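Obj.: predict assembly geometry.
Materials: sequence records (below).
Method: joint structure prediction, all chains together.
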Amino acid sequence: MMDCSQFRELLADLDRPGVLPAEVRDRAIVHAELCGDCGPLLTESESLDAELRRLIVQNSHSRVPMRIESDLLKAFRDQKAAQQRESVGWFAAVIGIAAMVLLSVGFWMYRAMPQSHGQALVDVTRVNPPAPVQPNARAIDNHQPQVADKSAGSIEPVRGKASKPATNLAADGSTVVASEDASAFIPLPDADYPASLDDGAVVRVEMPRADLAAFGLPVEAMEGSGTVRADLIVSADGTPQAIRLVSQDNGSTSAQQ
Amino acid sequence: MKRLNEPTDEGLLGQMMAGDEDAFLQLYRRKHPALYRFALHMSGNAAVAEDVTQEVFMALIRDTGRFDPARGSLGGFLFGIARNHLRKRWEQEQRYVPFADDPDEVRPALSTTGNGNGRHADRYDEEATERLRRAIATLPENYREALVLCELEEMSYEEAAAALECPVGTVRSRLHRARALLTEKVRDERRVDRAPAVGE
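Observations (raw structure tokens):
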């Protein structure tokens, strides 16, 4: 048997479909029929439900003006157009950035390419024994024609890169490829343009061994035929400014063009 | 009754996000009546209800991606937006509903039946409905929301809980309290209406 507090707990759900089991609902109604306090409550609740239903029916006639639908439709179209513009803008921005990156990379490669062509490794050779050299000779850093420091009485070439491409043309028309052995540049006695050592042209020549003595090089220490291969730094007016020997036996090769 | 091949709310929303105008219209026509009625009952003002309805769909157009199906239904999401807009208005205006002070302000917008020449029974029903409407408008906001959704929009407790973003038990207790308060208010109004005027 249901009591009054249980009934009041269930009162609001009595008319809601699917909330209470039929058996519980029946017991609540039986209680209301028998209880002098809960009976009027049930009547009031049913009356409220009826009025609420009337209100629902009345509400169903309420209509939103058509202008709201057309306003919203216009807003939807505007939003769609704005999104399309935005996506086109983003696409253009991405394309622009990609183009700038490509251009930058291309420019950088363009700048880097000629330098890499001009950089040929030159192996270190030690020219022994010490020979009479000019006391004021000095070594020049990488990327420049190298001049040996002969103050110690021996030529100590420094490993570096030749300032000219690896494919220097030799005097006989052959092409000298990279990784040949060469000594450091030694300023010639009559060198009068020290600046030429930095930016002078390098010319590969083949000369009689005896002529080397005139440059103060150790002729007697070198073996082989009567000619030697050498690189000359030549100033703008064609005057030789410095010389270095190029090994003929294992460090260089010649290719007929 | 839902037709078998009728697209779901979420399906329509997806099409709408892809720019489908028809999907948007279909969604609007499906959802706006309940939202409008909710706003009307909560605000007691037809113009406010129209504005709120429009704002809800404007928000949906502007920021469709905000809806997360994992957090609830689209209907609940839209009711949530409507509630927020109503709250903002109340905060701005620092007043809730005008029913109690000025019932005439909303009556023309809400009343669609009765032309003054109806039968006595119709007039009685109309008066009772207006009495009920006024009583609903004076309920505290939380109770009113539960009553409007569960009784006037005939939502289940679960649907109302999703719309109000609160547990089902809270909706149930609020509804019970709202009904009890409403019964008292209607009883009081009925008593006042029946009381003879001085000198009568």
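Conclusions so far: The interface with chain B takes residues 11-13, 16, 18-19, 44-45, 48, 51-52, 54-56, 58-59, 61-62, 64-65, 68-69, 71-73, 75-77, 79-80, 83 of chain A (CB under 8 Å).
To do: check interface contacts against the pulldown list.
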